[in-house]
């Protein structure tokens, strides 16, 4: 499954472009811009599974660094600071990873 099976390619392009500058990533605005806030819990889980590259059932810090590339190959890597902020927002139990139920959008 591709990200564009769940989200609009145009929305993805706009959102990734809006955060192309280093240290500009804001996960709340990004998820709103790609349309994730309007999606059903089922669609949100589909997006989660696309981003879970190693199929562990979790999105770990290393996968978060490349989260924008999960939406489009043109996306930049997040900085360590941005990655840690995103992880802190979604890691509900402090285990260093985000589960499907802890996904933030």
Automatic annotation (TrEMBL):
Span of domain EF-hand: 39-74
Gene Ontology MF: a single term: calcium ion binding
Pfam families: EF-hand_7
InterPro entries to which the protein is assigned, alphabetical: EF-hand-dom_pair, EF_Hand_1_Ca_BS, EF_hand_dom, Parvalbumin
GO cellular component: cytoplasm
Repeat listed as a keyword: yes
PROSITE patterns tied to this protein: EF_HAND_1, EF_HAND_2
Source taxon at top rank: Eukaryota
Binding site for Ca(2+) 1: 52, 54, 56, 58, 63
Binding site for Ca(2+) 2: 91, 93, 95, 97
UniProt keyword list: Calcium, Metal-binding, Repeat
Keyword Calcium applies: yes
PANTHER family registered for this protein in UniProt: PARVALBUMIN ALPHA
Family note: Belongs to the parvalbumin family.
Protein name: Parvalbumin
Species annotation: Meleagris gallopavo (Wild turkey)
